[in-house]
Write a structure and sequence with these properties.
The protein is α/β, with parallel strands linked by helices. It folds into 3 domains: 111 residues, no CATH class; 118 residues, no CATH class; 94 residues, Diaminopimelate Epimerase, Chain A, domain 1 (Roll), CATH 3.10.310.40. The protein is built from 13 helices and 10 strands. A hairpin with a 2-residue loop joins strand 5 and strand 6.
């Protein structure tokens, strides 16, 4: 049974996870709500199912502290003191695949591991022997072959983002001679042309271009984008997707709606610039984590983009941000999880309360 303070630094990583759950009678997996952590959780669950090990898996923006009703608790995407083992160093999915391989090699889905890594912004390198040999091709990373789905992509923020009709109209202006290259050029220009685009946008949009082909969805980047959307909005569907269930149609519907809501929230945000960070206040139901990522990539002139709503906040940063982000949440009787410059927080208060507290924390 797990006990607070049990986990130590040597309990992190694939070998520690495999050792922790190998003889367990019941395993609890607690994952953060992002594409990489979702893929990692799916890989571990596949191994647990293959070895007939009972489990419970939860996905949440800020996971609850480890419970004590499991033989072993594994944290995925964070490293609380009460967990028996953790995967917390990104990319998580390849590490989870390594752990799963020690438990049940035949249960590992190498494409899921690659999609999780892509969701973390990593190139699919250092792959296992059984992984497919992916090829890059001209175009834009989408999960479907419908180019009007550009409107839903959360890898890009442009004038047509969130508006399917606008995306279709932009595509109609192409003469078709350049195929995928022509679409990629359109997207690249659309991402950097707006007056409020920041120089970082030129680098950010490159992540959406020249995608890797993929069997389950049209591209690996598109698969990763879907994983992130379902992790945030419908984690039950996300877990089913990561386990190979036939939920692709529902997952794509969730992804399209997530993209629409994200782009609308970013446009409607009450934004402001401070010394060292950029703030976007959004409605309470906005997809904060995705808004923060796009805000940093396409709109924030500062190295930190902080997105806040009443009771919740998210951050995306190019610099170390964990200390003030976590301190601000704690000061409002809340909790926060930060990994590799991306974080989520829950707290007791308004968006204004959190922003004031965060500003104070940055001055310490």
């Amino acid at each position: 049974m797990s006990a607070a303070g049990r986990r130590s630094e040597d309990a992190s990583g694939p070998a520690a996870v495999a050792a922790a759950v190998r003889e367990a009678g019941f395993v609890r997996l607690a994952a953060t709500a992002d594409g990489d952590a979702l893929a990692a959780t799916g890989l571990l669950v596949r191994a647990l199912e293959a070895t007939e090990t009972p489990y419970q898996a939860t996905v949440d923006a800020v996971p609850e502290p480890p419970a004590t009703d499991a033989d072993r608790t594994v944290a995925v995407g964070h490293a609380p003191a009460g967990a028996d083992a953790a995967l917390s160093a990104p990319p998580l999915a390849p590490a989870a695949a390594e752990a799963a391989r020690e438990l049940a090699a035949d249960a590992v889905d190498p494409v899921l591991a690659l999609a999780g890594a892509r969701a973390a912004g990593a190139e699919p390198s250092g792959r296992s022997p059984e992984a497919p040999d992916l090829e890059r091709r001209p175009g834009v990373a989408l999960p479907t072959d419908d180019r009007a789905d550009l409107s839903a992509s959360t890898l890009v923020h442009a004038e047509f983002s969130g508006d399917r009709e606008a995306a279709a109209a932009a595509l109609e202006g192409l003469d078709g001679s350049g195929g995928g290259r022509e679409v990629a050029s359109l997207v690249a220009l659309a991402a950097v042309e707006p007056d409020d685009a920041v120089p970082r946008a030129a680098e950010t949009v490159r992540e959406a271009l020249r995608p890797y082909g993929c069997d389950r969805f049209e591209t690996l980047g598109g698969y990763a984008d879907v994983l992130g959307a379902v992790a945030a909005d419908r984690p039950g569907v996300g877990l089913a997707l990561a386990l190979g269930r036939d939920v692709e149609t529902t997952a794509l519907e969730t992804w399209r709606e997530h993209g629409r809501r994200t782009h609308a929230a970013l446009r409607a945000a009450d934004a402001g610039r401070y010394d060292g960070f950029y703030v976007a206040r959004v409605d309470d139901d906005a997809p904060l984590g995705t808004v923060a990522r796009l805000c940093l990539g396409y709109r924030s002139p500062e190295p930190v983009a902080l997105v806040a709503a009443d009771g919740r906040a998210a951050v995306a940063a190019e610099t170390t941000v964990a200390a003030p982000f976590e301190a601000a949440a704690a000061a409002l009787d809340g909790r926060a999880v930060v990994r590799d410059g991306r974080g989520a927080a829950t707290f007791d208060g308004t968006a204004a309360d959190y922003l004031d507290t965060y500003r104070e924390a940055t001055r310490r």
